[in-house]
């Protein structure tokens, strides 16, 4: 290998380091699978909780702004602090979720897709290709106002314009106790969501499906349907035709039925709640959370790649006790390959794209040869399976990669 020239990069990737076990894997992946082969150019931001605390979370904001500047980032899993973490890390404050902060700055949508490999079989027999879920990440039931109705009385929705004019709508005349909920969304957010979905579909050359309940929700859900259609007709219709892909809108229950019958290979756009529920269903049905990738895409085409899982805290505490762990690095490796491939496309460095493909192939070849981490070993349908620790597994991937290069 030493004779081979390393692949050169022109624009840096924004590198967002993270926490716990994934931070350990991050370093191993760079040392074993990237630095020996690529003249890696990154602009490094340490999103580990200690440094976020030290900078009062400014580092998270800086990393998001750098992503806006360069266009592509790769992110390690990070701790979202709760009360226990405030104590554990002596935090000045319960800092917000870094993913939430980055998503707000980039105004992006998160796309999650499973990594498909022989030996890890989906529970749905006919799924052959990944199904990517796009979840709208603003509003609806997640930003709702609720009242517990104590006794009989009238409940109305009241909207007051800035000039004082009102629009009223009766929700219900209660004859006893009950509950009520008022939720909202904004045209701007729905439009951004639609654009992110259409541009990601084009990027992936995959069909886009979107479903809601417009037959029942004639104003709320219907607005989603209308905005998607308008954005499609005015900005994407011709591009979709040229790429040979399609956009389909149908009712959410019809989509669910179609998803189960399908062989996969498309993007499924979901309203916030549907996306919350359906992404866990898909992740489980495809086999393993440690094999899910995630990419945040902004409406203007900025990409931030990461693994869908967290920092794998339980394994980290074992690691701190000096034990080797069998933590699966695949989704984190695929975050790197996704980012490197995108950088290669934008900067027209085909060797970089090819390297990303080869590294992914080396991961799959390793698993298909029966060598994998414990989480996969226990669900694998292969006959000969060896469970390796993370270090051994990464070394095996490197061996397969070097054979391919
Ligand atoms: P987690 O890190 O996703 O892990 C939950 C469990 O899933 C693990 O204990 C492990 O099961 C299994 N698992 C997940 N990823 C794995 C991998 N790569 N290899 C093997 N097993 C894997 O979730 P968590 O423990 O609930 O959360 C830990 C921290 O992550 C939290 O502080 C949370 O805030 C953060 N988090 C961050 C992100 C992000 O940055 N995107 C997302 C989610 C959570 P076993 O223990 O049974 O082996
Ligand atoms: Mg959920």
SSE blueprint:
Elements: E1 7-8, E2 13-17, H1 20-34, E3 38-39, E4 42-46, H2 49-54, H3 58-70, E5 72-75, H4 83-88, H5 98-106, E6 109-114, E7 131-135, E8 145-149, E9 153-160, E10 166-174, E11 178-182, H6 187-204, E12 207-212, H7 220-243, E13 247-251, H8 252-261, E14 266-270, H9 272-286, E15 292-297, E16 303-307, H10 313-320, H11 330-347, H12 350-368, E17 371-372, H13 374-377, E18 386-387, H14 390-404
Parallel strand pairs: 1-3, 2-4, 2-5, 5-16, 7-14, 12-13, 12-14, 17-18
Antiparallel strand pairs: 6-7, 6-15, 8-11, 9-10, 15-16
Helix pairs in contact: 1-10, 1-14, 3-5, 6-7, 11-12, 12-14
NADP nicotinamide-adenine-dinucleotide phosphate (NAP) binds next to α10.
How large, in whole angstroms, is the Cα Rg? Answer: 23 Å
Number of strands: 18
Strand order of the largest sheet: 4-2-5-16-15-6-7-14-12-13
Largest sheet, if any? 10 strands, mixed
Q: Uncertain spans, ≥5 residues at pLDDT below 50?
A: none
Helical fraction: 40-55%
**Beta-strand percentage?**
15-25%
Shape: globular
Associated small molecules: NADP nicotinamide-adenine-dinucleotide phosphate, magnesium ion
- Counting H and I runs of at least 4 residues, what is the number of helices? 14
